[in-house]
Amino acid sequence: MAPSSKLVKTNSLPSHQRSLVQPLGSPRHKRVSALFRAPESSLLQEEFVTAASGEAHHQARARRASDETLAVHAGEKLAGKKDADVGGTGTETDSTATPIVSGTTHWFKSSEDLIAFKEGRRHSFEYGRYSNPTVKVLEEKISALERAEATLVTSSGMNAITTTLLALVPPGGHIVTTTDCYSEARVFIRDRLSMMGAIRSTFVDLDDGMKSLKAVLDENDDVALFYTDSPTNPMLKCVDIRHVAELCHRKGALVCIDSTMASPINQKPLTLGADLVLHSAIKYMAGHHDAIAGCVSGSEALITRIRAWHHHLGGVISPSAAYMVIRGLKTMALRVEAHNSTALRMARMLERHPKIERVHYPGLESSPWHELARTRMSGYGGVVSFELKADLRGTMRFVDALEIPFIATSLGGCESLVQQPAVMSFWGHSEEDKAKNGIKDNLVRFSFGIEKFEDLRDDILQALNKI
Ligand SMILES: *Cc1c(COP(=O)(O)O)cnc(C)c1O
């Protein structure tokens, strides 16, 4: 893509778009671009709709932009244009698709121009490890969806997790997490973080209604961060984020939620009181099992602290991968609706099937997490875990008889994936180790894709007959 093209002639555009291409720095331009930067208040979103309509009589119909609309447009329509009047090198274009800016460094017109940048009078991206125009568009889009002031996009979900923990847990500090959190994050906390600067870690069980979390907070004054997934993987337990945030904030501890299993469509931890929300963006966000990325969102102040560590650790996403996530996000609301619907219908069917012992899905009334999920989430996601009335080999026969899903790890993409944790993650582990992690030989984790419900249902029913 050309590094910079001139602003389109506004009179060649339809009127509703003309109002979006206002002279830079004009009050209306500022109002419109404000939405795409940090739509934390519904007022800004109302202004977007009002400004975009361009007609006074439409003002009465102005309303809050929905996730569906934000997923398509936030961060994009005006990306980079706000810098054009001061010679910025953003993604100024009239292309409907955000350009992939592959340049790794950004040039200055003169030493004076460079000094203006150093003194903060002019914006530049400067160098690819610090930021990139395509990545910035993605960050603004995620901020809009999570109702966050700021977002840092990283090379992977694990990079978002490790960078966040390193930035926010001080030497000698104390981190509390759950026995259910993502396995590699758990290992990082237990085996690596705890070796660095005497960081203490405590693991609490989610099943006790947060009693042990409360006890740890009561007995210690040094808890810097509570970190957990919600829902968890593969047992789909849920955390009462609102309650946890109250408990932690009373003791000055931050709350960070890995919301990967929910997606920004089904759950918004920041609106429930969490300080930070992070995702493995590979999953529902990118949505096609074809791009690796991660992100963390929160207040400007917290993200600035994490970003400083990111500059040093260097876990930068490539602009091409960032574009893949932007593209994926445009259809995320539609996809997640399909995942939610198929998974819930399937969970209900499986629960009644004679060859199924137990189904784990927070959307089921029988789930101990249902009430919590129902009041805190707007959907339950595409992953369903279930136990067959079969042993290890019988469960393997079921998995092998399935024709539609791939036998593969990961989740949240268009294609259904199936795995038996005892084989995929715990093959060769001791019975004791499996029991400690709550992994039974007959457990199956199914990530429902967006294939037709009836096709997936028939496939599962025929495979159950092969046990
Ligand atoms: C996949 C996943 C991660 C790790 O993210 P990567 O992008 O693979 O590094 C973290 N948390 C959850 C819940 C995940 O599903």
From TrEMBL:
Its cofactor is pyridoxal 5'-phosphate. CDD domains: CGS_like. Coiled coil: none annotated. Residues 7-20 have a biased composition (Polar residues). The keyword Cell membrane does not apply. Keywords: Pyridoxal phosphate. Signal peptide: none annotated. Its EC number is 2.5.1.160. Pathway: Amino-acid biosynthesis; L-methionine biosynthesis via de novo pathway; L-cystathionine from O-succinyl-L-homoserine: step 1/1. The modification N6-(pyridoxal phosphate)lysine is found at residue 283. Residues 1-27 are annotated as: Disordered. InterPro entries: CGS1/2 (IPR044639), Cys/Met-Metab_PyrdxlP-dep_enz (IPR000277), PyrdxlP-dep_Trfase (IPR015424), PyrdxlP-dep_Trfase_major (IPR015421), PyrdxlP-dep_Trfase_small (IPR015422). GO terms for molecular function: cystathionine gamma-synthase activity; pyridoxal phosphate binding. It comes from the Eukaryota. GO terms for biological process: methionine biosynthetic process; transsulfuration. It catalyses: O-phospho-L-homoserine + L-cysteine = L,L-cystathionine + phosphate; O-succinyl-L-homoserine + L-cysteine = L,L-cystathionine + succinate + H(+). The keyword tRNA processing does not apply. Belongs to the trans-sulfuration enzymes family. This is plant cystathionine gamma-synthase.
